[in-house]
Amino acid sequence: MNILQLLNQSDYIQINNQLIKPEFMFASEDYAEDDDVALEAQLDGAELVLTVADLEDATPLADGAYWIESVGYLRFLSRQALH
After folding, report:
1. pLDDT at residue 83 is higher than 50
2. How confident is residue 1, by pLDDT bands cut at 50, 70 and 90?
3. How many whole angstroms separate alpha carbon 34 and alpha carbon 37?
4. Are 75 and 13 in contact (CB under 8 A)?
5. pLDDT tens digits, 16-61
6. pTM for the full model?
7. Higher model confidence: residue 45 or residue 82?
8. Number of neighbours of residue 35 by Cβ within 10 angstroms
9. Where are the alpha helices (DSSP H) in 1-83?
C-alpha cells in the first residue's frame, strides 16, 4: 500500500514510542508535489512537519511501519487498530 494512502486512512500516528493525533495530515495520492506538507504535529513540544517527499523517502519496515531518517520510527494507526 502507498504510504500516502496509509496517511489518509489513519487517525493516529505512532512516532517512536509516542502516540499522537496530528493537527494536519493529508496528501493527495494523485497530485501531490514533493514539497507539499503532508503531516503537522506537536512532538515533545516541538513542531513536526513532514512533506510528501519525506514520506515517500521513508524506508518500509517488516512490521508495517516506516523509518524516516530525521524522525525515526513511524506507524499509521486507525481507531480500529487501537481497540
Report:
1. no
2. low
3. 8
4. yes
5. 999 999 888 887 777 888 999 999 999 888 899 999 999 999 999 9
6. 0.84
7. 45
8. 9
9. 3-9, 52-56, 79-82
CA distance 12 to 15: 10
Residue tagged 493529508 (cell numbers): 26
What H or E segment, with its residue span, contains residue 59? strand 59-60
DSSP result, 69-80: TTTEEEEEE-HH
Inter-residue contact 3 to 56 (CB < 8 Å): yes
CA 80 to chain centre: 17
Grid coordinates given for 83:
481497540
**What is the spatial distance between Cα 52 and Cα 11, in angstroms, rounded to a whole number?**
18
What does R_g of the chain's alpha carbons equal in angstroms? 12
Find where cell 506538507 sits.
Answer: 37
Closest by CA to 15, choosing from 52, 56, 58, is 58
Task: List 72's β-bridge partners, or say none.
Answer: 68
